Amino acid sequence: MKSEKMVVNMNKITLSKILFICLLLISANVLSQEALILTKSGEKINGVIQDAEITVKTQSGERKLSISDIALIDFVSNDSQVSAKAYLHLLRGRQLIKEGFDDMALAEFKIAVEASPNYVDANYELGKLLSRMGRKNEAMGYLGRVLLLDPDRPGIDADLKDIADWYLNKKDFQSAADTYYLLFQKYPQDKNAEFAVYKAGFLYAWELNDSKKAIPALESAVEKFPNNQNVEKALYEIGRLYAESGDLKSAEKYFTQLIAKFPSGERADNAHFSLAKIYQQKREYLKALEEVNKVINESSDQTLILSAQKLVDEFMWDIYTSADGLP
């Protein structure tokens, strides 16, 4: 924001272009004192008032005021504008942080937000400070507001990662997953986005059993970061969750994709077994038998092999009852 010292001729500044004027008084003669003027375009003018007379239209009529009789003009017509009070308390808070008085700075930032609820800088400073003080739940309220007002705010991605990690350490898996996923959604190009979206997906799947959130998170992870070391796990979880929800077509798609990409992978045998169960439900017994035989002949997991052998017995019974019309 541009800043300059100058002699300010108020008659040459259109009031409609001004966000607020803060007159810093140290004597009765304001015309010899400095004024801080912030325009709506973001220009900050710091200078000495030369001359001014303001006409104020009120319900009882017009009044003409000399600038020397005014201590503060605060232009706030809606929540998107910043009041002079909020701006000054933000400045005080930042100075107090530099001096090591975090508790006092916290109070200043809170006053700034109360004065102008949608003041992005004040919300961000308050959220950061609360996070640093370990009050993560409160911090997320203010940082969340910053995300809504200014989603491109530099640095907030690191704050979200820190808060998500804190939730995870506290085993608050819901808040951790939601915050990780929020980080990815808002900042998909961020250096932490890849880790965050996979972490969110696995938390939804494993800790929260929330397939409605796990599936889109993991699908986004695989699509956006196909070379991540967790792709095989993600593909398997997506297939498993689709199968459990009854969407056999989608489940088949992801298990088949896993096997094609990782034919000797850690979860390939489980994917073959899962496909066998899908084909069993679809009454495609030859395909089911082909998949289950791959497990029996190629897997080193004895428990899985036993399950596969039991599945073969089920196939035989299904085929027998289907052929003879038995119940």
Please give a structural write-up.
The protein is α+β, with helices and mostly antiparallel strands and 327 residues long. Among the domains are: 3-74, no CATH class; 229-317, Serine Threonine Protein Phosphatase 5, Tetratricopeptide repeat, CATH 1.25.40. Helices cover 59% and strands 13% of the residues. It has helices at 84-98, 102-115, 120-132, 136-149, 156-169, 173-186, 193-207, 211-224, 231-245, 248-261, 268-281, 285-298, 302-324, and strands at 3-9, 18-23, 34-39, 44-51, 53-58, 61-66, 72-74. It has a five-stranded mixed β-sheet with strand order 1-4-3-2-7, with no helix packed on it. The chain has a two-stranded antiparallel ribbon with strand order 5-6. The chain is elongated and about 100 Å long. It starts with a strand and ends with a helix. The model is unreliable at 1-31 (pLDDT under 50).
What layout of secondary structure does this protein have?
Blueprint: E1 3-9, E2 18-23, E3 34-39, E4 44-51, E5 53-58, E6 61-66, E7 72-74, H1 84-98, H2 102-115, H3 120-132, H4 136-149, H5 156-169, H6 173-186, H7 193-207, H8 211-224, H9 231-245, H10 248-261, H11 268-281, H12 285-298, H13 302-324
Parallel strand pairs: 1-4
Antiparallel strand pairs: 2-3, 2-7, 3-4, 5-6
Helix pairs in contact: 1-2, 2-3, 3-4, 4-5, 5-6, 6-7, 7-8, 8-9, 9-10, 9-11, 10-11, 11-12, 11-13, 12-13
Query: Could you name the ranges where pLDDT drops below 50 across 5 or more consecutive residues?
Result: 1-31
Instruction: Give the percentage of residues in beta strands.
Output: 5-15%
Which CATH class of the domain at 229-317? Mainly Alpha
Number of strands: 7
CATH architecture of the domain at 229-317: Alpha Horseshoe
CATH topology of the domain at 229-317: Serine Threonine Protein Phosphatase 5, Tetratricopeptide repeat
Radius of gyration: 32 Å
The CATH homologous superfamily of the domain at 229-317 is called Tetratricopeptide repeat domain
- The total count of helices amounts to 13
Major sheet strand order: 1-4-3-2-7
Structural class assignment: alpha+beta
Summed over residues and divided by their number, the pLDDT gives a mean of 83
Tell me, briefly, the overall form: elongated
Order of helices and strands: EEEEEEEHHHHHHHHHHHHH
**Helix fraction by DSSP (H/I, runs of at least 4):** 55-70%
Main β sheet profile: 5 strands, mixed
What is the distance, rounded to the nearest whole angstrom, between the alpha carbons of the first and last residues? 80 Å
